[in-house]
Amino acid sequence: MSAIKLGVPSKGRLMEQCFGWFADRGLTLRRTGSEREYAGAVEGAEAVELVLLSAGEIPRELAAGRIHLGVTGSDLVREKLADWETQVCDLAPMGFGHADLIIAVPACWDDVDTLEDLDAVAHAFRAAHGHRLRIATKYHRLLREFLTREGVADWQSVDSQGATEGTVKNLTAEAVADITSSGETLRANHLKILSDGLIHQSQATLFASRGADWGGLERPFAKLCAQLGVDLPTL
Amino acid sequence: MAGKAQSRAVGQHIFAAFEAAGATEVTPDILQPAEALLDLYGEDIRARAYVTTDPLHGEMMLRPDFTVPVVQAHMAEGAEPARYAYMGEVFRKQDHRGTARVAEYFQAGYEVFDRTDPEAADAEVFALFAGVLKPLDLNATIGDIGLLRAAVEGLDTLPARKAALSRHIWRPKRFHQLLQRYAGLSPVPESRVALLSGAAQSGAPWIGLRSAEEMAARIATLKADAETASIAAEDVARLDALFALRCTADRAPAMLADLGIAALSPAIERLEKRLAALDAKGIDLTALAFEASHGRATMEYYDGFVFSFEAADPALPPVASGGRYDALTRVLGGGREIPAVGGVIRPGLVADLGGLS
After folding, report:
1. Do A124 and B218 touch (CB under 8 A)?
2. B219 contacts in A (CB within 8 Å)?
3. ipTM score assigned to the predicted complex
4. pLDDT tens across B97-129, in order?
5. Are B271 and B256 in contact (CB under 8 A)?
6. Does the beta carbon of A172 lie under 8 angstroms from any beta carbon of chain B?
7. How many helices (H) and strands (E) does chain B have?
8. Any CB–CB contact under 8 A between B222 and chain A?
9. B219 vs A111: CB contact, 8 Å cut-off?
10. Cys-Cys link to B175, which of A86, B168, B239, B243 (CB 3.0-4.6 A)?
């Protein structure tokens, strides 16, 4: 018989908090077999199957319809899925995994605190250095949509999949757009956050796939939504 | 949606009309060197270009547009005056779903490089497009980025402020925020106040490519700005009225003159000349829409006359659009420039709307 496939981050604190969130609503999620095995079981709901995945892969799996439900950061869904609302539906913010996607510049730039400053500096920088002001990030879509909406010009994004805060010191970027929760790593790398540079406030969110095959799963899904205390969405 | 063969047939029909108007065919490569183009395009096309790496030629891109390669070819070897036509695919990544939001589609275009009479060339391109597209009964709109530039240039304020505003004519939100700032109509950010009073010295270690001298230069610019009188509120109101102006083309010169912006006079004269040329080509000016802000947010690199032809369905992109791009020829000409105007039609959309016969 078919089942609702629920994708959950496969390791670390995010997995534990996720298990806790479902436990609070009467669903026990647990790994089956050894610590290293990525399979799991669900107790307390009918026709729900647990799939343990890397949090970064969950948006793609939801979009492809290979899982029906998935827990991942709201930032990752917005970054990885074009027109995300047409591909997935957000069922519930889960109250953990908080992180802000922000723009940060060198703390020594006394003259830069706002996007207006960043834009003016980008223009002068391009004239002086012959290339656009580089912003290191792995959130290219969110950064581009934000700066386009805000009317900032003369910048370009450069890809950085890790240690993004170090790119300015290493002269491979002039600014960064990255996730932060306490801001400590930024400060340690002599960076400061723009006062109006908050791109997105992310948190772990339960999403439903619009592209998955929901045939025959309407009743268990309605019961599950009631149990979790979320409104039944139109998918 | 029309199939590829059908779109191509429509495109060839349009291309034939362009050739009949005296254009020479140009066939830019589909694969273009990426670096120069990426530097020229605005964020929108940049983000949507397909870029790949070639072992011998470095970064290459699938052409997202014909105008830039056509200008490059003309500036390199073209004789004057010149009229060019082309028909082929362009490629742009799509971030949103929707009708006609396709990553690969045909463009048929016509470009005029002629310095003898710019307004006549504007009218020539528009009238040619209007004639070709007549069976579709589209809504045509014209505008003129040159009017906006002239109004900014005519402001009684610092050259640095005018330059900053001119740079953002294509980004309405930032433009209006800057205008409010220069007019003293928005509160100065606390950080700016602290900076100008000398209180904002972080003492943080210097990192990054931007130098301390560059920062000192900007602070000097900000100080000079803070010591300069605000742009008068009446001038802001006049600019706002200009940006909001919409009327039929026949009434545009009088409406523009009524705004009381002295600096607009030469641009209004050029508009009158262009309208007279359009009228002489049989365009009904009482049925043609004029919008002062037309093309402001979408038509990068156009800096004078702009136009578009749109279907009634607002979900569809423009069926045709174009304009004058003198500044682009300056950038690509290496010291030379030539007045240039042109536009493109999307044959796929024309086919979707029923074709031309």
Report:
1. yes
2. 110-111
3. 0.89
4. 776 688 999 999 999 999 999 999 999 999 999
5. yes
6. no
7. 15, 12
8. yes
9. yes
10. B168
